[in-house]
Amino acid sequence: MNFLLLVATMTGTAELVAEDVRDQLSGHEVSLVLAEQASAAQVAAADNLIVVSSTYGDGEVPEPAKPLFSALADGDVGLGNVRFGVIALGDRSLYAQTFAQGGRQWDAMLASKGAVRVVELLAVDSSSGVDTAQETADWLSRWPNASIRGAA
Amino acid sequence: MSDGAESAALAVAIVGSGPAGFYCADALSRLSTQARIHIYERLPQPYGLLRYGVAPDHLATKSLSRVFARVMQRPRMRFFGNVTVGTDISLSSLEDAYDAVIVAAGAAEGRRLGIVRDPACLSGTALDFAHWFNGHPHARALPAHRPIRHVCIVGNGNVSLDVARVLARPNDMLQRLGVPLPPLQWHKSLDLKEIRIVGRSVATQTRFSPAELRALAGLDGFRPVVCQADVSLREEKTNECLQVLREWASAPIGTGRPIRFSFGMVPERQTTNSLICRDASDRIHEFDCDLLIEAIGQLPARVAGLAFEPASGAVPHERGLVHGRKATFVAGWSAGRQLNIPLIREEARELSERIVKQIAPAGLRGNSKVDQLVRALPSCVVTWTDLSNAAA
User: Fold this and answer.
1) Which end of chain B is more exposed for a tag (fewer CB within 10 A), N or C?
2) pTM value?
3) Taking CB atoms and an 8 Å limit, are B59 and A129 in contact across chains?
4) Does ipTM exceed 0.90?
5) What residue ranges do the domains of chain A occupy?
6) Do A127 and B66 touch (CB under 8 A)?
């Protein structure tokens, strides 16, 4: 299977999580791309799209990802052939109100553009000290027809 | 990669293992996969201000250490802790051995207010406070020989909010967060009636970020208190912080001890139990204050062998390249930059790109001098293997 692993990060934390996901998808064809280096057309062409996004400021999408987000949200690229899932990072202990809001915005936007959500959003609390690699492996194991390394 | 390229790989020394240093290491190792990157750290433990400056309850930010630890797993990365550049090893010997040196030495001390103080009054900087609560090995303890009921924090930025929040946290939570015993006992001994955040700026011009400000409302046993008069300024350039402050000003009086905000105040004098301030109309205000915490900025750490600007403490440089040097660069606080973590990362990437471009493969010095220098490091040096063994 082909996966586009799209990373929206400002500190590198989402990238770290995405690197784990890439490793867990070994055996599949995965391209890990930073949102600031990706085009809307590239996203539209993906068979399977995983967005790993942090949350910035007051519940926003990370700054470097905003151009791509707007291009997808405001443009007319068809996402009907894209199967997607979102991993949303946040800090529940300090910013409960806007927790994982950046990723939730991707999730809602992609769905509204016709992309098909195949796994429910995974919200990862970076303040909790949990093993994010285990969380993502469990989440990936629910991806239809994908075999995942490291899943419980 | 051919053998030729292998033997002439870029070698970079980074002085300081905080966010600026580690983001440079990250970017350099991505741009030049063969590069040897050696991080020199004054303290035995890595991560600088991430470990010792960021408030202990900022767990998501603290978890950035996982990103940096993964950078250390890349080949040809090395960490030399407990080595002070200027004492244990000279900057010029690093400059002599490596193709480039990046100084990212961080901030070492908080700025102080130039006010009149009674000799017996208690005060400290927000950086002292953060160092102590984060277990910095050279932390200055805050005094505890008098009951502390009223704390004033001067500064209208997120650092003030950090101090207020940590003070207001339940003691057992701080314990769970790993705060060391001496500050825990000090915190337990407080008899807090009120915390006051005092700023020079008016309520429309604070440097708080809205999310950090909002986090102050969720504290058990405390409530933010804002004067209606401070937030009903005629200025209609509204911003999100002002909106939060306005919400608090018009909220019904709740329970819990107040975290008060005072805007437009210039501190003039501290007595043993008060802080005396002057407002823009020259009126004098006297606030109860048993302890004053100054959160008005920090000064870059000095590195022996580098000039610094007296006022800012920063090393004079041109887009990161130190004046008068060919391949010595500064990043983060050392460059006079006071940035949030995302911007530190962005600047580190830009600087790393320039370094990789500027230092042509033809000009590389080879490995022998670096090997020699590493072999001659003092025996007290703490390596990444030492740290991993200690953690296991």
Assistant:
1) C
2) 0.94
3) yes
4) yes
5) 2-140
6) no
